[in-house]
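# step 3/5: fold
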Amino acid sequence: MSGCRLVKIVAGLLLLMSAYPSHARNTLEELLKEPFFSPSDIEEVRSGGFGVAKVHEVSDREIAVAIACLVKGPPSDALSPFLGDKLPIDDKLLQDQGMVDSELHETSFAAISLGKDGQDEAQHYLEARPGLGLNLTMDEIKTFQALSSSTAVDQVERLLESMLQTRYLAYRRDGLAGALPYARESGKHVSPGEELRKSEKDIKWLHELYPTFHNAWLSYPHNLPDEITGEDFFWAKLNIEDRPVFVLAHRLEASNENMHLVGIRDYYISHFFDVSQRAAVVTQLESGDQLLIYVERAWVDYWSGFASLSRKVGHKMLLKQMEHLLEDHGICGK
């Protein structure tokens, strides 16, 4: 961590400690009240297990899961899977990732590779069409279509790097409004920024718990408060259905005297999903225990191959990954 960033974090925390009065801490029931967590789920949390909430989904293309648990170790370690120089991604899916240097972003995407089967994947880009297995703008599609079908893999990779950098810069400048669209058939398009906005505005418990962060997340990059103590950008390469999936992610971190929160937003996903986001918050209960609430929400696109999975299976897959992440790091769970 750079000296300037450390000074910013310390200064922000000192400011918060002086600006905010001491608040009465909540009980477990107050934080997990229905219709989010049922009484049986609250009892499961109290006994050291995972409580699973019924989360309202804003679209039939959204899958959302929320879990809660009591933190086992020091609260300072409770969010360790979500911080540092890596994203919280299942190792079975992750192939590569990198942090974007805001001052040297031109070189931050240089490690992008289509992998050992790069020729096959390059053809997906060279043969790109609206609604045909890739999330691209119409201009991006035309750029790839202008290349010869025999174009070398490394040239396709360089174009992909440029495309990811352009998307990063657009989002960095305009936030959700800068998340470039995905072209679909018949001249239609999908707005990843609007999908994220619908999901994130629906997280009403987060607004009640930490309105300053929730407002900053929705209005980024404008009017960021001093409570935002960290910000990072990433790219990641996943393996889904034996194809490389490229992701652009943005992470915001915030703290006040009562809680520590991390939000991660995947504002671009090359295929299979449209967007996804997760939020994890640790707060101290009236009992003195530390409670972790962790939510993930993802939008899938039926044309990209997810239709074969039922929503019930999708929820189970997501929940399993979330629980394993916390258990493998020793954060919580029986």
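# step 4/5: annotate
Residues 1-24, 303-308 have pLDDT under 50 and may be disordered.
# step 5/5: archive (pending)
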